[in-house]
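Input record (one chain):
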Amino acid sequence: MKSLKKMSLFLMLAAVMVFTAACGGGDNEGGNGEELEGSVVIDGSGTVYPFMARMAENYMGEQENVSVEVSRSGTSAGFKKFLAEDGTDYNNASRQIKDEEKAKAEELGIEVQEMKVALDGITIVINKDNDWATELTEQEVKDIFLASAGKKKWSDVRADFPNEEIKTYGPNENHGTYEFMFETILEEQDLPEDINLQQDYSTLVDLVSKDKNAIGFFGYGYYESNKDKLSAVKVDFGNGPVEPSLDTIKEDGDYAPFTRPVFTYLNVNNAKEKPQVLDYAIYTMNNAQDVAKETGFAPLSDEDVQASLDTLNGLKK
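The corresponding structure, as predicted from the sequence alone:
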């Protein structure tokens, strides 16, 4: 009799477990919960790369038969690969798609869906031994990176700064971060002719960390993962110096003038043909807020996330 009761209890628990597994749930579910296979190919922004690499790793942990390849050629270079015959499934971007890129997509018959995934802050970084430029006004930052301002030495910025040549660094023109600095912060005025522009963010970190007179810029996430090598400048936008952080990098936050959204762009044609591509998009938005905080980005609002999910779920119909 006891054996019969034990068997009945075991069967009941097993049934509950099966029902729970079938229901799925939790923040980490993808688009439909079914087992998928195939590949997802992503390129683009170096800034967005840490976010998307973590997302891909998490996704492949749940969908073991899907291979997600994430590269980082830069926003603009990535769009060239995305907007091509047999192009990539996604392009990560630290700026919005340009009109000429939209025109190219239309020419090729590619339907493109913009997905805002997080918020980033352009972070001004200096060498650890730089103890004079730890706080700068917004205008001083602009003047350092404006060719027309003629700030060649630190003493040109402030009289009590060292009489040493300023060495400026930043990502090259392939990156949306460069374009945001040039187009938005500097209002399309030229950067210094002698600025050292690099394709690889890790190279920028290394160069600034070895040069006492260096000052550079890139996304907050790269600074966050290299705090042991660099210092971040506190920027005074008019109400006192503000340190970039997940609390200040918000569209209405204290660091708002240097804050921008970052994106990934989905090839909808591919998403409709390959279930794993659409599933990955839905998974990304379901998990965007958590992965953002884990990789040095400020998370989106619940409203922004839900709006994207509504659009993506509509593609399943």
